[in-house]
Amino acid sequence: MNTNLLRSVVYIAALCGLYLSTAMLIPAMVDLYYGERDWALFAICAAMVGAISLMASMATRGPPPAFSKRMGFLLVNVLWAVFSLVGAIPFYFSDLELTFAQSLFEAISGITTTGSTVISNLHQVSPGILMWRALLAWLGGIGIVALGLFVLPFLRVGGVSFFKMESSDTGEKPFARIATFTRAFMAVYVAITLACIISYDVTGMGHFDAIVHGFTTVATAGFGNYDNSFAAFDSHALLWVSTFFMTVCSLPFSILIVLLVRGRLDALRDPQIFVFLAYLCTFAILGGLYNHVRNGIELPVALTHSFFNFASILSTTGYASEDYTLWGPFAVAAAFFATFMGGCSGSTAGGIKAYRFVILFNIIVTGLKKLIYPNAVYSVRYGNQNVDADAQRAVFLFISAYIFIWAIGSMGMALAGYDFATATSSVITALSNVGPGIGPLIGPVGNFAMMNDPELYILSLAMLLGRLEVLTVLVLLVPMFWRS
């Protein structure tokens, strides 16, 4: 491995650590405002991380090498590892008395926008800790969108170029320069966050709750301030507001930018948007009707909770308005399979993602046609674009690796003594970055506090694998990668 490449990766990671240490001052100020003593914890952690990051950046400063695929793979993994470790420090040294595995799990859950938690009695936790969880998720959302739009297409991990898929059917980039696009993305991301916070505040949340939930809704992370999530508010208006923003933030951000900045409605013709909204409405309507018929819940109420909870699962946010596993077997099965699916590429959502289902469906249709007319020439298309062989291969590699890792992880959790539902759903909810699983332990009204450290390490790795699109991490296990 080129030493100049390693030096550059460490330098960039140190700069990011420096930025994250600065972000620790925000929860410090929140605790100081509310008169909590944890403000000193965040101030000390910020100083410690900032000093180490500054020294590391000064020691590794130098001319950067040309950006390559090898550098991209290594940089993405190192950055997320640094974010996770730095994010865990305040949790570990807080009064919560978390083990290192629990602290790391909480930080990874935030930075990957998963939303699973090992902290109980959230209403008694200091505002600074709650803000730090939300801030990790919000910053993680920025990194995830940047990863999906700029890095993964170059690495050929995400299949067809996201820029081409998400800009418009013309195949042109929505903006000529990446710097312009980045500024537009940040403006849209912040604007949607402010709109979400204000909407929550107007419809009944307190100011602090609105800020925290606004951050974690836009990041599709699901961290809240109460153990029973949105059931603590008992407001249907809040549920519909949250459903709207969770759905919007599951759409490709490049499309949102083209739509909001340039007013181009044709950008919404992206096939993955139609597919995502179609299976969201299908799950939600069927779930609402099922709850209405089976349990006698009033139809408007049943549809409200169904749309909210299935939007939460499919957007991989992880909020819950009630224990939907009590609706009946169909709701449990639907929630389990919805956990695999996820939102759109280039959004903050996780999961397999809708565009892969579009490509996979077209590959199957094309293959069936070839069985009938073997000598005919058919192309796999995504909208008006051809999907090349490399992109098709990437889709198959991703889905195969995804299922394989889920199976291996589930068996590992079963060996640790967990029942089938807990073992399988805990791994897929981590791999898809959803948050809650199935069952009384980790279901919508549970959390991961009762799990032991080895299982938390397994799930932490699964969260990172899912967020970094699996192949980005697995490529580091190939010996060829490390050869000069």
From TrEMBL:
Q: Which Pfam families match?
A: TrkH
> Would the keyword Ion transport turn up in this protein's UniProt record?
yes
- Provide GO CC annotations from the record: plasma membrane
Q: Determine the domain of life of the protein's source.
A: Bacteria
Chief subcellular location equals: membrane
Can you provide one Gene Ontology molecular function annotated for this UniProt record? potassium:chloride symporter activity
Q: Where is the signal peptide?
A: none
Its localization reads: Cell inner membrane; Cell membrane
Q: Which InterPro entries match?
A: Cat_transpt, TrkH
TM regions (residue ranges): 9-33, 39-59, 71-93, 135-155, 175-200, 237-261, 273-293, 326-348, 354-373, 394-416, 456-482
What UniProt keywords apply to this chain's record, in alphabetical order? Cell inner membrane, Cell membrane, Ion transport, Membrane, Metal-binding, Potassium, Potassium transport, Transmembrane, Transmembrane helix, Transport
Q: Where does K(+) bind?
A: 113-114, 316-317, 433-434
Regarding the membrane, this protein is recorded as: Multi-pass membrane protein
Please give the function described in this protein's UniProt entry.
Low-affinity potassium transport system. Interacts with Trk system potassium uptake protein TrkA.
Regarding protein family, the annotation reads:
Belongs to the TrkH potassium transport family.
The UniProt entry, under PANTHER family, shows:
TRK SYSTEM POTASSIUM UPTAKE PROTEIN (PTHR32024:SF3), TRK SYSTEM POTASSIUM UPTAKE PROTEIN TRKG-RELATED (PTHR32024)
Protein name in the entry: Trk system potassium uptake protein
